[in-house]
Amino acid sequence: MKPISLTNTEQKDSDKQLQAQLIEQGQLPEHIAIIMDGNGRWAKSRGNLRSFGHKAGVDSVRDITEACAQMGVKYLTLYAFSTENWRRPKMEVNALTRLLASSLRKEADNLNENDIRLETIGQIDRFPDKCQRELKEVIELTQDNSRLNLCLALSYSGRWDIKEAVKRLARRVKSGEIDPEDINDEMISCHLSTADIPDPDLIIRTSGEYRLSNFLLWQLAYSELYITETYWPDFRRKELYKAIHSFQERERRFGKLSKDEQKKQAKLHVQELTT
Ligand code: IPE
Ligand code: IPE
Ligand code: MG
């Protein structure tokens, strides 16, 4: 199989080894979601304009996407622009939308050649026409790819997503198609913008902020959280490996008892029955 390369650099043997170790460990997250934060502070700490940080952030996106594709992570969802980010100064918003359009243009073939499928969630129609056109083109170009699903959250917010799902469900109730009593978790999940994507296993936030900032509010119910002080432009694959390693060390209980505790309780139960 052709090696994956988005960064145009040959993968080092030491990196291959690190990835192989993580894969061997088992419990690789199927879906990683990332709140890519800290571009502005990264730039300011270097005496640069905030837009410089956003540009540097694109290099991190490329590196993290490449590493996920190489390791066999199936879904990568990146929070690139929130509904609330429209409230930033016009100059910054313009710089961000221009950067989005130019990055899409530059990366389109590369994503396609590496069997990566691009999707988006959010209010895409709020973006300038040029951005919308570029997005549409890359989405169409990569629609049959299957190695990695790269989902960009653009003009996205969790509350917007839930609100839209509620509206869709309400319409179906109104038309008599569904009984309100039949509405369950799966049905709600199916009406969200992420209907085709499993819930994230791991959610990473960079830049040391301890909040979700209106990201996938419904979908993150049982995701493992990983927060790092590292600013997004400095978040490269080694940092990703740390996050995955931390995920692999955890026990996901989903409200149940831990495996050890379950065994202990089962033993006690048998003892009770036999004495
Ligand atoms: C994240 O970096 C990128 C976007 C929200 C678009 P920020 O721009 O929020 O950077 P900080 O948090 O101000 O450092
Ligand atoms: C969250 O970052 C949104 C994205 C990373 C796209 P923000 O920088 O907008 O979040 P707050 O305002 O600090 O909560
Ligand atoms: Mg921020």
TrEMBL record:
Gene3D superfamilies: Decaprenyl diphosphate synthase-like
TM helices/strands, residue ranges: none
Family note: Belongs to the UPP synthase family.
Protein name per UniProt: Isoprenyl transferase
Record-listed Mg(2+) binding positions: D37, E224
MF annotations from Gene Ontology: ditrans,polycis-polyprenyl diphosphate synthase [(2E,6E)-farnesyl diphosphate specific] activity; magnesium ion binding
Required cofactor names: Mg(2+)
Protein task: Catalyzes the condensation of isopentenyl diphosphate (IPP) with allylic pyrophosphates generating different type of terpenoids.
Residues annotated as catalytic: D37, N85 (proton acceptor)
